[in-house]
Every structure is written in structure tokens, then in C-alpha cells.
């Protein structure tokens, strides 16, 4: 009974052992992550600058939209008041 359990455990161990990382694999991963962190840092800074510019433009746009519209007095006095358009229809002819 112990030999069967030991054989199963040994087979499981032999199946997992080739998939484990070696010291060289860890060093290669560390070097690659270090290279990626420098690129990531540039992207993070560029993204933050873009966010600040975007929110600044949004704030300026909203302030322009929400600003009350004041028309100068000269424009109001110079324009005549709008006259209504009246259309008269002739009555229908009797048959």
C-alpha cells in the first residue's frame, strides 16, 4: 500500500518538477520587469499630463457654458421688436 502511494507521489513530483522556475528564469524575469518599469513610468507620467490637460479643458468649457449671457444694451436698442406674422385666409366659397 505504501509503495502505491509513494509511486503516485513520485509521478506527481516528476510531472511538476520541469515546470518550476530556475534561478536563471527568475533573473531573466527580473531584468525584463525592470525594463518594463522604465517604460511604464513614462506612460504613467504621460497619462497624468493628459488627464490634467483634459480636465482643464473640460473646466474651461463648462465655465464658458455656464457663464450667464449678457447682451449689450446697444444691440437690444438697435434691433426692432419682432412683429408677428399674420396670414389671412379667404373664407371657403359656398357651393
What key phrases describe this protein's structure?
95 residues, mainly alpha, single chain, membrane, transmembrane, 3 helices, transmembrane helix, 68% helix
What does this entry look like structurally?
The chain has 95 residues and is an all-alpha fold. The protein has a domain at 2-56. Helix content is 68%, strand content 0%. It contains three helices and no strands. The chain has helices spanning 2-16, 23-66, 73-78. Keywords: Membrane, Transmembrane, Transmembrane helix.
Helix content: 55-70%
The number of distinct β-strands equals: 0
Ends apart, CA distance between termini? 117 Å
Number of helices: 3
Decide which structural class fits the backbone: mainly alpha
Unreliable spans are none
What is the mean predicted local confidence, pLDDT? 85
Order of helices and strands, N to C? HHH
Cα-atom radius of gyration? 40 Å
Cα shape: elongated
User: What percentage of amino acids are in beta strands?
Assistant: under 5%
Describe the sheet with the most strands.
Answer: none
Amino acid at each position: 500500500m505504501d509503495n502505491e502511494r509513494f509511486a503516485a507521489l513520485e509521478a506527481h513530483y516528476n510531472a511538476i518538477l520541469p515546470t518550476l522556475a530556475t534561478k536563471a528564469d527568475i533573473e531573466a524575469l527580473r531584468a525584463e520587469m525592470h525594463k518594463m518599469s522604465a517604460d511604464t513610468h513614462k506612460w504613467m507620467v504621460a497619462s497624468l499630463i493628459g488627464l490634467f490637460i483634459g480636465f482643464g479643458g473640460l473646466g474651461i468649457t463648462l465655465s464658458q457654458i455656464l457663464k450667464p449671457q449678457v447682451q449689450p444694451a446697444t444691440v437690444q436698442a438697435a434691433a426692432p421688436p419682432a412683429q408677428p406674422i399674420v396670414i389671412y385666409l379667404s373664407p371657403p366659397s359656398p357651393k
